[in-house]
């Protein structure tokens, strides 16, 4: 059973008519970048809770979550109506193994995300650990429309501090100015993702962290397996670490 704390909403930022960031303050237990916690509201006569990854780094006093308002989604619709000063319940203890200390050191780290699943990667990129472990880091964010490419200012700020970060936005459902428009698995199959960032990846030098909807995670994992990569497990380290974000 989760130990629930009261968190105060300090800020809400709307990126589009469906995507928003919720920032709260609460004295939770220490967590690792990439982990998630639970948020909850009393809706009707019951507490409705869902798991959300942190966008903020563990060193920040502000707790930030990147959300999508789902039609008829009991919790997301209620959270979309929150205002600064309102309260929301948060689990005191974070959890999850989608963290850098579960990933072997290598030359390259590929962070592959769809939609709001970019959140845990942004948490990792704001910590120093990742820059000490890898020479080249590629952040891939695949979305349907260009308005879904959130956190542009933060990504640019990170790039200014750490030029070894390569950011690859992908928009799949509209004509746009991004260079790539296919789904991540296709871009791996045809080699365009690697060519785009001018890196040669192979199991000896590359680690892949995949976070997104189940179809993307499954298909991308299979593409990488076909290229000779294997799932990363504690007893048998590999090159593919996954988190389903749905």
Provide structural commentary.
With 246 residues, the protein is an alpha/beta fold. The protein folds into 2 domains: 4-91, Beta Barrel (Elongation Factor Tu (Ef-tu), domain 3), CATH 2.40.30.10; 100-244, Rossmann fold (3-Layer(aba) Sandwich). It is 22% helix and 32% strand. The chain has helices at residues 74-79, 119-125, 129-133, 152-161, 184-189, 192-197, 214-226, and strands at residues 4-14, 19-25, 36-43, 46-53, 63-68, 87-91, 108-114, 136-143, 165-171, 206-212, 240-244. The strands form 2 sheets. It has a 6-stranded antiparallel β-sheet with strand order 4-3-6-1-2-5. A 5-stranded parallel β-sheet has the order 9-8-7-10-11, with helices on both faces. Strand 3 (36-43) and strand 4 form a beta hairpin. The protein is globular, with a radius of gyration of 18 Å.
Strand content: 25-35%
CATH class of the largest domain: Alpha Beta
How much is the average pLDDT?
95
The residue fraction in helices comes out at 10-25%
Please describe the structure with a list of short key phrases separated by commas or semicolons.
6-stranded antiparallel beta sheet; globular; 11 strands; 22% helix; Rossmann fold; alpha/beta; Elongation Factor Tu (Ef-tu), domain 3; 246 residues
Draw up the topology in text.
Layout (H helix, E strand, L loop, with lengths): L3 E11 L4 E7 L10 E8 L2 E8 L9 E6 L5 H6 L7 E5 L16 E7 L4 H7 L3 H5 L2 E8 L8 H10 L3 E7 L12 H6 L2 H6 L8 E7 L1 H13 L13 E5 L2
